[in-house]
Amino acid sequence: MAEIKFEEALKRLEKIVEELEQGDLSLDEALKKYQDGIELSRLCTARLENAKKKIDLLSKNKKGEFELKPFPEDET
Asked: Which residue ranges make up each domain of the chain?
């Protein structure tokens, strides 16, 4: 898939979901849309994982020195 922004990929994925939910597509069209959706989903997931790895919090330790800490994950 060509290099597209996360937001554009997400919009395209949402459109595919809407089209599939309508149920007006032929089997071949639905399979193609499904395949495109899986590809877009993987792209979005990879981009989110990459962004998550880049997020760090900068805080002071007990010595007053700055240190990087991983962004806390939501446990809910």
From this structure: 6-70
Query: Which residues make Cβ contacts (< 8 Å) with residue 48, sequence separation at least 6?
Result: 6
Q: How many angstroms separate the CA atoms of 67 and 59, rounded?
A: 6
The pTM assigned to this predicted structure is: 0.69
Pick the CATH number of 6-70 from 3.30.420, 3.30.70, 2.20.25, 1.10.287: 1.10.287
Neighbouring residues of 36: CB distance < 8 A, sequence distance ≥ 6: 12, 16
Per-residue pLDDT of the chain (76 residues; tens, 9 = 90+): 568 999 999 999 999 999 999 999 999 999 999 999 999 999 999 999 888 777 766 677 778 887 777 777 665 5
